[in-house]
Amino acid sequence: MRDEPDIVKELREAEKKGKLKSYLKKDEKKSENKKKKILIVDDDSSIRRTVKSGFDRLDLKYKVVNAENGKECLKKLKTESLPDLILLDVMMPEMNGWDVAAEIKKNSEWSTIPIIFLTAKADSHTKNYAKILSDDFITKPFEITDLKKRIEYTLKKK
To answer: Which CATH code of 3.40.50.1970, 1.25.40.10, 3.40.50.1820, 3.40.50.2300 fits the domain covering 35-157?
Structure first.
């Protein structure tokens, strides 16, 4: 009989001890930690919900975190684990997306986090600013499959 891989030995041992379910739950937690974290910053709760439910419907394995405005976004960046990508609305009260992106780019810890702007504005001014301050932008309304493709492409470039 040839040697079994360590993982098989661990599974057999857990099964013998009647602890296979708890062992598998530990493994699920490990894979949960590997999920890409996406921070959605938008003052419109319906956009945040739409993106989250769209990810769930497409079975995308993203850990979604929300912020209602730019100030909350910056606070989360200071106090929580950093996201792998930020979806950032442009027009928000208190602090607009341009200012938030500029603050992110100024901070050496945050500057490499990819940003995709979500905006209802599609004029040339917006497009030019987006090219400077972000990795991509998508206009509202958008298809969740479009957003998925842009996120995947942006994360691959990272």
So the answer is: 3.40.50.2300
